[in-house]
Amino acid sequence: MQRFHWERELLQGWLDNQPTPAGELYARSASGGRIDWAAIAASPGYDEMKQELLEEGSRLADRPIPELTQELYGLFEATGNRLAYEGVYFERRRRLTTFALLHLLFPGEPPYARRLEETIESILAETTWCLPAHMKDESVDRGIDLFAAETGFALGEIAALIGERLPRELTDAMKAQVNRRLFVPYLTLGPYHWETAEHNWAAVCAGSIGAAALLIEPDAARRAAMCAKAVGAMNHYLSGFGEDGACLEGPGYWNYGFGYYVYFADLLRRATGGRADLFEDGKVRRIALFQQQCYLAGNRPANFSDAMPRVNVHLGLSDYLAALHEETEHPPLAVRAAFLDDHCARFAPALRNVIWFRPEARRGADWQPGSWYLPDAQWMISRRAADAGTFGFAAKGGTNDEPHNHNDVGHFILLADDDPAFAADLGCGEYTAQYFGADRYAYDCTGAHGHSLPMIDGRGQASGAASHAIVLEASTSELEDRFVLELAACYPASGLVSLQRSFDWVKSGPPRLTLTDTYRFAAQAAQITECIVTRCRPRVIEDGRILIAGTRHTAVLEYEAGLFEAAVEERMFANHYGVREHYYRLQLIAQPGTSKLFAAELRFVFR
């Protein structure tokens, strides 16, 4: 569906009629207000942010700019390792972001300007701004990936905001390199695969190039042509969402993809005097609401797919959306993303975390409680606040053919405050060539065996679109939520005629979750293994009763005694940053023909 369409000529007319200097396209919020950098630097409301920047500036001050060598670049092709090259690449971007923001806040400090200039010069000299993992099918002169686009956008913003304080020849070189590496190939060598992608690549790549064009492209026709192409890509990006606004890639990718959608939309709206408005759509409004719906407790979201178990919030983006839509919540300060949280050190969100942050906004100590069913994603999410703490439950249907897919149809999460997850999603594993290759579902993070799902005769769910849920019931109320799924399609060749999984989440008093799996086989029942993935060490108290103890709360798993043999397996996996972590796989094993029904109750015991 083409939600937004403005011909290049129309955009060019609007842009020509709004000859706003690039540096004046920035405002304090969606509702306007001039940026006063001196006032921000003097305001106590920004003290924590400023301290983070100053400390990072001090750390980087006397360190040499790390070198991106051909040896590092070749590691991905040779071994599949991404982290070695990317660690150096992102350290260079961190220097760029840190010294640019410090120079904006403290323009009278000469060392910040000098280090910023040195960093820019080194980035302009890089052979490519793309990561090696994204360059398998692209030549250096043609390649545009997420990070090349982000780099060009960052340089465009720095030129617009600080350009007059930098040497003229350096500013000219920045613009020339953005033109050579982004503008020329975008206009003449495409289309690129991401121009029609229905995920974050479309928003980040096209949004970055369109925004950079608005800021530094002097030719009106070329500027309008790039913006028209970017708007087309944004339509594809929006097509990747259902009408419920859920981001199947999770809140981290929502921050990322939707963030760049908003950054471009904001600049385009201001540059055209409000005529080209990418916010004027109900679906965009519902996407904006997704963030406050997906959190279960504090900074812990329903982290299905390649989402992290903890995701802090970009308050700049959130406060901008709250000014745009009154139903959008200002997030609690406790979940603010610190400057160092973004290991990629992206300039665009870091800048807006400063200029769009509203320290005077009214915020709660935590997210507002509530329950939501997102019908297109087939997610049930509930956040329960009680005197004893905050409790969160989430379960998903969907398919095993989703963006950043895990084989996880019917999987669920159960949290309480800051305790380790009682029923966990491991989240995102280390990105390697193999992780995105033929062996993807051998990893614990991605395979069915690393999720709270049944195994049939030792086999987990199949991957692919045919492996899907049918939602039989989804209801929410003040006291109880109910979610019922048919999952037999996820287990082909298992002999299953039906596998109904029901969740009953009772929120009155001490919250409790009842999980019921009902099996029907065409012939002889197979061996059933019920699995629960937890970050807490389970302890079998007696047949039919298992204790799962956190640091503050305890969950008790109760099931019918005599039908299952309990086993606990401790396993290790590599998280997104390559760090080894452990988890527990609790298995309840029934022999063939002994059980067609599994019913278990997980309830909290307060200590």
UniProtKB/TrEMBL annotation:
<dbReference type="InterPro" id="IPR008929">
    <property type="entry name" value="Chondroitin_lyas"/>
</dbReference>
<protein>
    <recommendedName>
        <fullName>Heparinase II/III-like protein</fullName>
    </recommendedName>
</protein>
